[in-house]
Amino acid sequence: MVERAGPVGGRRSAAARRAAGQSTRDRILDVALDLFIKDGFDRTSLREISEKLGFSKAAIYYHFAGKEDILMALHMRLHEIGQRAVDELRDLTPGAESWATLLGELIGEMLANRRIFVMHDRNRSAFEALHRRKHAGMHQELNDELRRVIGDPDLTPRDRVRMACAVGAVFTTLVVYGDLLHDIPSAELEDLMGATIGDLLGVPARIARPRRAVRRPGSPGRTAPVSRSPGGPVRREDPPVR
User: CA 64, 68, 72 angle in degrees (round to 5)?
Assistant: First the structure.
């Protein structure tokens, strides 16, 4: 089977031309993400996704069995972030500075995938059903690792409480209240959160803000925050959500 069916109407859409360098699978996910945020998962059809991409549904079925598989693939982008955090926590030397650096990197990656959190918030019923059927236990590993660190009796009560507060600040801000902060640019929010984590852990704010600025393609003079995991890809900031 070929990877992509012929373009609708004999022409590729503007979105398809702009994304020529992306893999077809990633392009499907990016367009689906936009539609799931704008119209909702239930109201978005595979036909709408394929039309936005500029080719027929056959190309989508080459990569995904259906719309639920697309939703799961988007959700798994967040699991990849969580898995990296778990792996780093296991090898981390306990201490306020190392925790601040790790949480700063986590904030950067979460903000680079900010639109997926918005999609979660706007499609909660779809994700609840997906969790029950597909992977109810997959969130447990990160939670278990955080509980191990925060519950370590070898650490001082002061450090354990500070770590618990810092972790709570990261996830509450971005997961619970992230949609309310959509008007704050990601670069600014990353700096504000880094400073807050530094305050909570009692370390210089710069330690919790390991962001590196890169020029955004096609936008001279603008920069976007980048989070770089060891050996991992560069992850750029998503566009603002409105």
Answer: 85
Write out the two tokens for 182: 């959509």
Of how many residues is the chain composed? 242
Query: By C-alpha distance, which of 87, 76, 77, 201 is closest to 142?
Result: 87
pLDDT, one tens digit per residue, over 200-232 is 999 887 766 655 433 222 333 333 334 333 333
pTM for the full model?
0.69
Start-to-end CA span in the chain (Å): 38
Q: H helices within 92-173, ranges in order?
A: 96-112, 114-122, 124-134, 140-150, 157-171
3-state DSSP assignment of residue 42 = coil
CA triplet 126, 190, 215: central angle to 5 degrees?
100
Helices (H) and strands (E) in the chain, counts: 11, 3
Work out the angle at residue 12's Cα, subtended by the Cα atoms of residues 9 and 17, and round it to the nearest 5 degrees: 170
CB atoms within 10 A of CB 200: 23
* Contact between residue 229 and residue 112 where contact means Cβ atoms under 8 Å apart: no
- In one letter, which amino acid is 127? F
Helix (H, G, I), strand (E, B) or coil at 35: helix
